[in-house]
Amino acid sequence: MSQKILLVDDREDNLMSMESILEPNGYTIIKANSGRQALKVLLSDIDFALILMDVKMPNLNGFETATLIYEREKLRHIPIIFITANHFGEENIYRGYRAGAVDYIYKPVNPDLLRAKVSVFIELYKKNHLLMAQEQRLVVINKNLEKEVNDRIASEHQIMELNRKLVENIDRLESVNKELDGFAFMASHDLQEPLRKIHTFIGILSEKFKDVFDEEGQRYFQSIQKAARRMQALIQDLLTFSQISADNNTWTDCDLNLIIQDVLKTLEYRIREKKAEISIDALPVVTGNPNLISSLFVNLIENAIKYSRKDVTPVISIRYLISDQTEEGTPHPPQRKFFRVQVEDNGIGFEQQYAEHIFSMFRRLHSVAEFEGTGIGLAICKKIAEKHNGFISAQSEKGKGSVFTITFPVRRKLAALAKKNDSGSFN
């Protein structure tokens, strides 16, 4: 950063002379042609490394201007060098030093001497700023140390009290979450009946008055029916989401091979419609809720088919591996065995920066006009994985497909893997 120097002289030729001497060194030169103007400059700008001031000026001379400058606390750090054509006696020289001067330069100004003296004070200015910055850092460090010490000397009673309140808050939050899940279930359930009636009566009206309404009117009916179907799907997904927390029963050994085969039968029409190619490894037996696990894979495989690339055959691979360690950054401890089931596709993919956002409720990367859906499917997958003390993650690249990894902790001795299908694929 360029250091600033304030030049004060009532003669323009003197100002220009000193400016021409100093400017090549990269300093920023600010000029004032009187003591009053110098004071005006210093009212709004105090960050000067040095002031070079003529002694003999009308109205306010250099000594008087220096005295007024140093009356302000914020300006006392700026050194002043007097420029004078007179060799004062000792009394006047002392007067200048008492006014705050740090040095004198006599006219005619020797350029080399001026540059040398200015460079000394510029260097002092730089070192002073470094010291001030270091002092500020030390102040911050000291405050942090004080805070750390105060935290460490907190009494055991206070810590126990905080823990007690934390446990109470956790219990309260769990209770509230259960109530919210119950409310969401009831609200969604109660909404389905009037929605079914809307859907039914719109169908009746559309059929009964098909000869009355023109093409535009029929499009309106179709739009209403489409909106009703979307709302029905949304309510159904909300019901599924709310039921996950409430479903604490039916935990058993789940053969993922059988579950995946049932899922493929459920999605058979969509698979054949898209001519999807699906290959499946031999999968493990896990402990969990078969209905929830089935819902998880329905969502993942259905998404892989839905978000396929145009004019490209969807290829979906479901593979399995076992690991002694969890992924970095996950809440589970290391050195514990985990099942990993990966669902990989060759679809449109997405940018990796959205890999966490896609598991949030109603978070969509595409409009409904492009791809139908409620924006809840992957949130359901995440909640099901967490319900089983596992987690789900995604790796993707736009235009090159995605890999969803579901990780289940091994709860007990591994059951025997089901035999692999003869073909290992479903077309």
How would you characterize the overall build of this protein?
With 427 residues, the chain is an alpha/beta fold. It has three domains: 4-129, Rossmann fold (3-Layer(aba) Sandwich); 172-246; 252-426, Histidine kinase-like ATPase, C-terminal domain (Heat Shock Protein 90). 50% of the residues lie in helices and 17% in strands. The strands form three sheets. Strands 11-12-10-9-7-13 form a six-stranded mixed sheet, with helices on one face. Helix 2 runs parallel beside helix 3 (62-69), helix 6 (156-208) runs antiparallel to helix 7 and helix 10 (290-306) runs antiparallel to helix 11 (377-387). It is elongated. It starts with a strand and ends with a strand.
Please work out how many helical segments DSSP would assign.
11
CATH-defined superfamily of the largest domain: Histidine kinase-like ATPase, C-terminal domain
The coarse overall form would be elongated
Overall average pLDDT: 78
Radius of gyration: 40 Å
Number of strands: 13
Sequence-ordered SSE layout with sheet pairings:
Blueprint: E1 4-8, H1 12-22, E2 28-32, H2 35-44, E3 50-54, H3 62-69, E4 80-84, H4 90-99, E5 101-106, H5 111-152, H6 156-208, H7 215-246, E6 252-255, H8 256-266, H9 268-274, E7 277-280, E8 285-288, H10 290-306, E9 315-323, E10 338-345, H11 377-387, E11 391-396, E12 402-409, E13 425-426
Parallel strand pairs: 1-2, 1-3, 3-4, 4-5, 7-9
Antiparallel strand pairs: 6-8, 7-13, 9-10, 10-12, 11-12
Helix pairs in contact: 2-3, 6-7, 7-11, 8-10, 10-11
